[in-house]
Structure formats: structure tokens, C-alpha cells
Amino acid sequence: MKFFSIILSSYVAAVSAHMSMVYPLARGHPHNPNAAVKDYDCITAPLTSSSLIQSGNCARKFFPCGGYPMDTKITQVFYAGDVVDVKFWTPSLPDGPQPGSESASQARHNGGLCEFSLSYDGGKTYTVIATYNQTCPDIFFDWKVKIPDAAPSCDDPGKCIFSWSWINAIGNRELYQNCADIKLVGSNLAKPLPIIDITRANIPPEFPNIITPPGDPANTGNTKGSGPSSSDVSANMALNIGTVTNTSTTKVVENKKKKYSTLIIGCVIGGGGLVIVIIALVIFYMGRRRNTQNERRLSENSAQCNNEPGSANISSESKPAHSVI
Ligand SMILES: [Cu+2]
């Protein structure tokens, strides 16, 4: 027994015993059958800044995703609207939580701030889809994360990522991140999710903000904590991120069509009306012209009549030129 515990303690000492995401399976995770590399020693280590060559015994872990290559095969498929029960793993309890192991160290640093996010571009931009304050992470609990109903599909290997990032409550100021390669089946009518960035801190000079989030109120240090708070769970489940452009778009298109057809009908009616008005004007003008011509002809005739002898002199004053001296 003593021998076993010596072996166990040396194993624990050899690895960087912090936390990692085991469901969904992260890139580089020793349990991930499709991991391009399996990092037994340092999957749980924090990210490091460019000013450091390595972190403890671990090689430098770049942002994003610790610099691990994408999985060789993408087999983890999630659907829009799914509630994912995220699970964590720590090398000090390699077989997961066991009865009686609640007081074992998970190196969870009394929790802190966990953010779960989706990235559609391989970890450049993020949409945080769930936040757990104070008590996360902890291998003894599942952490519910809802894939937004309006999440668009993502089937571009290496680009579609389910990310867990963590800022620890106690200990060195650190930022942890694990990324799972996933395929996402969503609505084809969904718009790209809005950018809701993860908290980028604690790795200067890349992320110079130094943040210490509040920790688990149970203050259990590295052992089992109080788990996800009901207020965090309900807030995460109530999130409604993104938009699906189904009925509203169709309606907009229909309305546009309606508008255009009304406009066309209006134009036709208007145009027809204009033609009728023009024809009426032409008829009216022709009629008037004819009347004028008739009148002129009549007056010419009557003038001729006046000049003839014996005819009644209607207005002798108006014709002085004709008076004979
Ligand atoms: Cu640590």
C-alpha cells in the first residue's frame, strides 16, 4: 500500500495536475482516441505568454487551444438546442470521481470563472454560450451548457470548436483553455452567432489584464466544491443567442413581392389613366379646333354677307374704311 502510494504520488508530481475538459473530449487529451498528440503531462497546464518559454515542466502552451493540432477525425457531433453535460478530468483522479475521493486534490484552485464558448474560425473569435461563476471547474459535477437554438451549422474540420476557458480563483494568475473539435448541426437559416468574447486575461503581454475572480463560497480549495449554482444553471439555460431568419425573412420577401406587385398594378392603372386623360384631351382639343374653324368660317361668311349691298349694317362704326366719301 505504501509502495503504491509512493508510485501514485510520483505520478502526480510528474504531471501538471490541474483540470481539463474530458467531455467533450479536448484536443491533446490523453483520453481522446482522435487526438493528433496525447499530452499526458501537460493537458491540464495553463496557457503561457510569449514572454515564457515553458510553464513548469510543460512546453509553452499557446493561445488559442494550447497550440494543440486539430483531431485526426471529427466524431463529436452536437445539434443546435442540445444541452451538453460538460465533464472535467484531473490526472490526480484519473478514473474520475470515486466514492470517498471527495477530499482528493483536483488542483481546481477553489474554482473561479469558467466560460464555455463556440468558435467557428478555429479559436480566433468566440461566442460565450455559458458562464459558471465561482464554483467551476470540479470533476464531481456536470456543467450544463446549451448549444443555442439559433446556432448555425459548422462542418469545417479544425474550425468548429467547443471551448472551455477558466480563470482560477486562487494561486498564480492563470488562464486555462481546452478546445474540443466538433461538428455542429444547426439551422441553415441561422445567421452567424454574435461575437461574445471570452475573458482574455492573465497572460501578459498577449492578455495584460490581471483578473482574480471570486472563488467557491464553500472555500474547499482543491477538493470537491459546491457545484454549479442554480442561478448560473438557469441563467445559462435561459440564454437565447443568435437569430434564425426563417419566417421573418420569408415574410420580408413576401412583403417585398407584395409591395412590388402593388407598385406595378399601380403603375399600370396610373399609366392607363394617363392614356385615357391624354386621349380625352386630344378629343377635346380636336373638338375645340373644329368648333373654332366652324366659327371662323361662319364669321367669314357673315362678314361677306355684311359687305354685300342690301345687307343689314350691323356695326357701321366698326368699318370706317368702307365708308364711301
Ligand atoms: Cu495551478
UniProtKB/TrEMBL annotation:
The chain crosses the membrane at residues 263-287. Residues 209-232, 295-325 are annotated as: Disordered. Residues 1-17 form the signal peptide. It comes from the Eukaryota. Residues 219-232, 300-318 have a biased composition (Polar residues). Keywords: Membrane, Signal, Transmembrane, Transmembrane helix. This is 4562_t:CDS:1. It comes from Ambispora gerdemannii.
